[in-house]
Design goal:
Length: about 350
Amino acid sequence: MKNKQVKFLKQLLETPSATGTEIAVAELVRERLAGTADEIQTDVMGSVHARLSGTGVAPSLMLSAHMDEIGLMVTYISDEGFLSVASLGGVDAAILPGMRVDVHTASGTLRGIVGRKPIHLIEPDERKTVTPLSSLVIDLGMKPKRVKKLVSVGDPITFGVGFERFGDDMAVSKCFDDKCGVWIACRVMEKLALAGRAPGDFIAVATTQEEIGTRGAMTSAHAVNPDVALAFDVTHATDYPGIDKTKYGKIVCGAGPVIARGPNINPVVFERLVAAAEAEGVPYQLEAEPSVTGTDARAIQVTRGGIPTGLVSVPLRYMHTPTEVVCLRDLEATVRLI
């Protein structure tokens, strides 16, 4: 991956966008595609719709990827100046103790620490259980009066970590779920424009609030009303110890994009994705999805009278943690496929 493309990916990943607060990332998308898209709109939900007009009369294709990331929200400020929090999306309380976080306030971002009693002060029986989120607090290292002046109930919080390359073309960061999809949607549009456009309209859609129920996808699919749609997201890599492949399948980082198959997926869209991958020599993997998926595809498929929908994902290790891992080759291969 070229350095300028890595720079844009890093920018997306490190721009905070806890569910319901995606404004800054939406601005990045609009800025990135301003010189490429023929039309860019932002709907009431905050989702961005960027359209590249087609060269003829052909089906329109919408590619949907969500901008929001999981996080926390301030629910209470104690008299001692410590913050109590609730989760925004699926946050695992087990990973939080000792984490550095960013608290996003009206006056700016504050560094915080997720505090918990040290092991020396925890009773033996208590050590065997995960400390629930309701028992964790965030320490801002400030006097209570200053905390209460700067922080408000409802302020969002994100993991205080960033992007880093490591190993053999691997990368680690918070919120590859699904900022890498936003990167892919932008790159597909840019490459289509350079190649002379597609026969039909291509609409890159960066949606909001996926992590609490694919809410942005609902309104975007209804407004765009494409002839065909692809949802893009991450899926669980199963190539590390402790994952049952008989239950979750074999999904390997670096082995290419993952094409989903199941009732949430239109069979013709699935067949065409596979045919495209094979025709172009793009490595790909298959994933069984026997029910509705936890992606934008679940909402898009049943919008209006129904929209033929496919789902393409990249393998991701350690989902919904501050250290999500992908192989950068998979991102580039996904752009080629789409």
